[in-house]
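Anyone? Bumping this.
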Amino acid sequence: MSPESRSALSVQFDLRPAKQVERRMLLDAFQRLAQAGFQIRDYRYVGFGSIHFVDFIIFHKLLGIGDMLSIEHDADLEGRVRFNSPFECIKIKMDSSTNVIPTLNRDDRHILWLDYDGPVSRSILEDVYMAGSQLSRGSILLVTVDVEPPSPEDEGPRRSMEYFEEEAGEYVGVHDVQDFSVSKLHKTSQLVIVNALKEGMAGRRGTHLYPLFYFVYADGRRMMTVGGVIGSTTEQRVLNSMNVVGATYLRRRLGGKPYEIKVPVFTRKERHLLDSAMPCKDDWQPEGFAIPAGDVSAYREVYRFLPAYAELLL
Amino acid sequence: MSTLQANASPSKRLFLEMFVRDLSLEDCILDLVDNSIDSLVRSRNIKVSDALLPAEGVGRNGGGGRLAIIDVRYEPGKFRIWDNCGGISVKDAMEEVFRFGHSDNAVLGQLGVYGIGLKRAIFKIGKDITIESKTSVEGFSVHIAVEEWAKQESWTVPLTVTAGTGNVENAGTSITVKSFREEVAARLRSGTFEGHLSEMIARTYSLFLNRYVAVVLNGRKIQPKLVNFGFSKDVNVGKEELTEGNVKVTIYAGLAARREGEWQAAEAGWYVACNGRLVVAEDKTELTGWGMGMPLFVPKYRGFVGLVFFYSPNPLELPWTTTKRGLNQESFVFQRVKTRMAAIGRPVLSFLNEMYSSEEKERGPQRGVAEGVEALDVREMASRPQAPFRISAIPVGGDIVRVQYDAKWDELERVRKSLRKSRMPASKVGRYAFDYYLRKECPQ
């Protein structure tokens, strides 16, 4: 069974600001890809919509994607999932991602977001492997996993190493215990996911992963997203022509540092003030009170993508 | 500074003593059968790609003739393989047959790839070798006394040209080996060797046997042993076709047919055929993706069966190894196909996961599907369209309850005896007893 969005029931899904920033950054990137020549509007979006469908709403309304598939493995949720599906164009498939991925059309272009709640596991890596074999050139794959220590932290990195050796097997490659310290787990998780993807792409001549995304963020638990375009030199050429000005969140190479989504805490009044000064210079400070410089620059990075929440009495 | 020329020439000992260690005696004999089938393919213009198609006019060589015969026979001190598969031309004998490896302009057969099999086989078996072959127009005979030949510098063997048979039907080849190697003599004497060889031939050539050729082992005709998929109105067999360069690939995955209500764990796994010849059978290892792309094989997957059929007019492009008992993991086409095998096999494994999800016992609805399947000849699947494995209807399990009880062995045996069905599974005996009571005591 795939550990798909169980968190939908415990977290008010649309109120996770860092996650929402991630979605908006993905949207921004897809718009840039569309501008460069990828026919994003004609892509099929496949994700785990659960009962909130936040990503589906954004990608349908703002990208115009009209062919969408939401995978839901929890049979108990079927009624609620169908009730909450916001658009007619969203198909619901009650099955595990592991079963659905091999049935995706190998000629159609997809955006496939495997947005898991749990840490890297054998079944997740099987999904990723299968996606590497299944997705057509030009498709976009995103994989999100939890990168907290897979067992309680006080058991230390050795326990995490055992977990990864068990769950990820040969995808871990040469390693030692330091690779499994809390601060490295996002990197190790990214590595095994990319290795599973490469294994799934084996034998596809001239087809590569062109990385685009490597996010780390935490609304509660620490999460990591890795993703990119599966394609050939044709897609690479289009990617190279993409306008990347201001897209500081993109990660076009593997092995570097992730883009850390930080959401500083400000009041509504403070945000109005900050917004009026955005984009600001490096040493900008409001008049009358001081804000840590790091928070100002963090805000400058995300203000375009940051949701504003307010109570709505209905 | 001076340049010297180091000696890099091969030695006869390498071929006589080393290469022969690379595979078993059974595999060597299969190599000889490959050569016979290749002669047949050449002389009768058989399309190997058709071996997977439903057999119309089976065994008529596509033209109303009788099956070709390959006759393998051994007794203490003498091994012989004889065929009427068309024979070897003098030109091929002069230029290819005795050469180690093919010449650059050799016309390759469909099963013989590396130009090593025949030599390795005869040298493995014994030290006194006679080969006689006749096509319809010419013939030749060769005698090799291996120990003397090994002492000679020359790599040639003397060949006597003889007359042809005048017709294709009688044209063929006979290879006789005497003066066995000691270890070979011991294996041929063993009580299980013949059964094992017969089993391997039945599987390896299952797509050729009784269609193009009959293989006779020590006077007994071997029946093909095909991979049997299970099929019913509720369950199909997953199928995908792809082409990589000149290589055409068809992948099938589904539920195995059941025997006496059970799946046979030994027969589960992947089967791989290259140009119709099985090279891997019942594989449950990483070779075919278990534990890498697919989960590790565990007993609950004993209902899984998959078959991959590679076909190419150029056998060098196929992913087999020189022993034809394995797959070349570096082959581009196999790397690609391996990932597709995982994809096609996945829904079958998911079904089996569901079937055995809560306990080791089979869940009712899934068992209903599994018991409803009938064996389907793999050739019958060739004409079906590509489709993923699908269970169209899981019967509703709500009105079904599982009835279980313990019984003493001797009492079970008594019931079996009364039924005259000594091998009926215990579960079926229980079911029979229940049905009997229903019918006799509470008819509707």
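Late reply, but here is one note on the structure posted above: The domain at 12-221 of chain B is CATH 3.30.565.10 (Heat Shock Protein 90).
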